[in-house]
Amino acid sequence: MYELTEEQKMLQQTVRQIAKEKVEPRAAEIDAKGEYPWDMFELLRDNDLFALCFPEELGGSGADLLTVCLAIEELAKVCTNTALILGVCDLGSTPILLSGNDDQLKKYIPPLAAGEKQAAFGLTEPGAGSDAAAMSSKAVKKGDKYIINGQKCFITNGGIADIYSIFAKTDDTAGVKGISCFVIEKDFPGFSIGKIEHKMGICGSQTSELIFEDMEVPAENLLGKEGDGFKTAMMTLDRTRPTIGAQAVGIAQGALDHAVAYAKERVQFGGPIARLQGIQFMLADMAMQVEAARQLVYYSCVVVEKGGRDGSGISAMAKCFASDTAMKVTVDALQVMAGYGYMKEYPLERMMRDAKITQIYEGTNQIQRVVIARHLLG
């Protein structure tokens, strides 16, 4: 189990204040313009929030996973796009932290911890989403380089990031055991950015294709050994899925807060609608769902940090349950606000759109249920 330390509570309060004062006033504009919010990136950097994701010896603050999730949750209460800036820093860098050697760690992690550079994670391809083994990107070793050809799609931070953790096949005949992972820099020859996607939600987060055309990658940029890539990817997702859960909890809590405030103010039938039992029951159900999701996410952080076989199943549960909760709570909160909730001048319709992606990225919730079932059945 967990109990928040005084340091964690202080961090939570600090990020909550930053979110309310600096982030929330920008949230609607970020969504409406659909442009990457560099000012929000700078805000996180100037408050040393990227350092949370990294150990002290590499320039970070040495925070644990729960602390990272606390920060993401507070940001997501007001702006999913800003929360995702911190989340993708964690996702893109985790393969390096897990499988990188000393030279790779010293080269790539300190600039990420300082907010001088950004990272991204490249696993998904047009023909390989949930089925990572179906990827077609190939890496062939030639002398002291690997030559990579292929493409990735739906990559968060694509075209924004400086450093990419990229997966490609080094052995076509070995299935998932033929997948390897590489650290890619944005200026490597043969690397380019393809289509920039226009999305239903998280409109301020850039999502793009990555194109590899005889891309030259130094052999020393292989993470671990050839064939370690799939293991690295799965270990990464086990560790980062709680951050998606935290993002979902933040969205759901933000939606609930708006619904409660509105119910106290909206007058119908001679009084605030908060006096109506039908509304009270809706709010009570939302509150239970949000708190249950929060407890599961926090608990998953502790289990994942401890290591062991339980982490994968609990991590999948946290991501799946929290994101399903975010979708349900945002829909119900919008219903409480009725016609006003449907209007863009209020944040509920944006929160509902943003909540949907949490059921999809870092493994759809159908895949999470497969992971959970496999954990149960051995």
UniProtKB/TrEMBL annotation:
Residues 120-215 form the Acyl-CoA oxidase/dehydrogenase middle domain. Its cofactor is FAD. Residues 227-377 form the Acyl-CoA dehydrogenase/oxidase C-terminal domain. InterPro entries: Acyl-CoA_DH_CS, Acyl-CoA_Oxase/DH_mid-dom, Acyl-CoA_Oxase/DH_mid-dom_sf, AcylCo_DH-like_C, AcylCo_DH/oxidase_C, AcylCoA_DH/ox_N, AcylCoA_DH/ox_N_sf, AcylCoA_DH/oxidase_NM_dom_sf. One of its GO terms (molecular function) is flavin adenine dinucleotide binding. Keywords: FAD, Flavoprotein, Oxidoreductase. It comes from the Bacteria. Pfam families: Acyl-CoA_dh_1 (PF00441), Acyl-CoA_dh_M (PF02770), Acyl-CoA_dh_N (PF02771). Residues 5-116 form the Acyl-CoA dehydrogenase/oxidase N-terminal domain. Belongs to the acyl-CoA dehydrogenase family. This is Acyl-CoA dehydrogenase. The lineage of its organism: Bacteria, Bacillati, Actinomycetota, Candidatus Geothermincolia, Candidatus Geothermincolales.
